From TrEMBL:
All copies of domain EF-hand, residue ranges: 1-25
Keyword Hydrolase in record: yes
Family: Belongs to the isochorismatase family.
Keywords: Calcium, Hydrolase, Metal-binding, Pyridine nucleotide biosynthesis
Enzyme Commission number: 3.5.1.19
Record's keyword annotation contains ATP-binding: no
Identification of the protein by name: nicotinamidase
EC category name: hydrolase
Organism: Galleria mellonella (Greater wax moth)
C-alpha cells in the first residue's frame, strides 16, 4: 500500500488509511492532551511573558488550543495550573524570608526578578526568582477567559508547596512529591501525550522532558506554545528532539490521534 506511485513518497491518504485501519488497531494508542498553565498572570498579569526577552504574546495559544479541543478526538484532556501559596519560594518579594547559601553570587538585598539565587537548604537549592504570580484563588491564577474548558477534563495544580518550585506538571523541581498527573494517565492507559501552553522554555519544556523520561510518546505543539527566552526556547526544542520527542504544528495533530 505504501508508495504505490513508486516515487519514493508515501501518499498522505494512504498513510492516514494505514494509521487508522492497521497501525491503530495493533498499537491501540491512547492520547492525552495536556494544556500547560494558560493563566492570566503569564499573559497579561504580573509575569506577562510578552515583557520578557522573547516578547511573545501568550494569548496567541488560545486560538489553536480551542481549535484542537473542538476538532481532535483526544482520549483525555488535562489543564495544569501554577498554583502558589503567598509565601512561595520563587517570589522575588519573598527572598528575605529564607536564608541564602554562602555560595550564592547575589546578596538578598541585590536580588531582582529573573535572577537565579541559591537558598541555604540543606541541601542548597538553586532557584530562579519571579515576580509574584499565580497566587492561589486570585485572578492571575485563573485560566484565560477565552480558553475552552471541556467537560470531563482534569485540572492539575502544581507549585503548592511554599518551599519548592514546580516547573514540570509531573513533579516538583526536587522530585519530592508528584501531582496527580501520572496516576491519572496510568488510570486511563495513556500512551501518547500532546503538550502545549506556557511557558515553552519553562513549564512546557520541563513537562515534556519528564514525559519522555517516563517513556511516553510525547509531542510538543509548537504554535500552541509561547515562551520567555528565545535561546532557551531553542534549547528546549533541541532537548526534545535529542530525546526522541516530536515537534509538530497544530494542523498536524489530527492525523496523529
Ligand atoms: C512558569 C515561571 C514560574 C510556567 C511557572 O508556567 O512556565 N514560569 N512559574
Ligand atoms: Zn510559578
Amino acid at each position: 500500500v505504501f508508495d504505490k506511485n513508486g516515487d519514493g513518497y508515501v501518499d498522505k491518504e494512504e498513510f492516514t488509511f494505514c494509521w487508522n485501519h492497521w497501525i491503530k488497531v495493533i498499537v491501540r494508542p491512547v492520547s492525552a492532551f495536556l494544556i500547560v498553565d494558560v493563566q492570566n498572570d503569564f499573559i497579561s498579569g504580573t509575569l506577562n511573558i510578552s515583557k520578557c526577552n522573547a516578547q511573545q504574546d501568550g494569548s496567541e495559544v488560545v486560538e489553536p488550543i480551542n481549535r484542537l479541543l473542538e476538532t481532535v478526538n483526544f482520549d483525555c484532556v488535562f489543564y495544569s495550573l501554577d498554583w502558589h501559596p503567598p509565601d512561595h519560594v520563587s517570589f522575588i518579594d519573598n527572598v528575605h524570608m529564607r536564608e541564602l547559601h554562602p555560595s550564592c553570587p547575589i546578596p538578598a538585598d541585590k536580588a531582582q526578578a529573573y535572577d537565579t539565587v541559591v537558598f541555604a537548604g540543606p541541601p542548597p537549592m538553586r532557584q530562579r526568582l519571579w515576580p509574584r504570580h499565580c497566587v492561589q484563588d486570585t485572578w492571575g491564577a485563573e485560566l484565560h477567559k477565552d480558553l475552552k474548558v471541556v467537560e470531563g477534563a482534569v485540572k492539575v495544580y502544581k507549585g503548592t508547596n511554599p518551599e519548592v518550585d514546580s516547573y514540570s506538571v509531573f513533579w516538583d523541581n526536587k522530585k519530592l512529591t508528584d501531582t496527580s498527573l501520572i496516576s491519572q494517565l496510568r488510570m486511563r492507559g495513556a500512551t501518547d501525550i500532546f503538550i502545549c501552553g506556557l511557558a515553552y522554555d519553562v513549564c512546557v519544556g520541563a513537562t515534556i522532558a519528564d514525559a519522555l523520561a517516563i517513556g511516553y510518546r510525547a509531542v510538543l505543539i509548537d504554535d500552541a506554545s509561547r515562551g520567555v527566552d528565545l535561546a532557551d526556547i531553542e534549547k528546549t526544542k533541541a532537548t526534545i528532539i535529542n530525546n526522541n520527542g516530536v515537534i509538530v504544528t497544530s494542523d498536524e495533530v489530527a492525523a496523529m490521534v
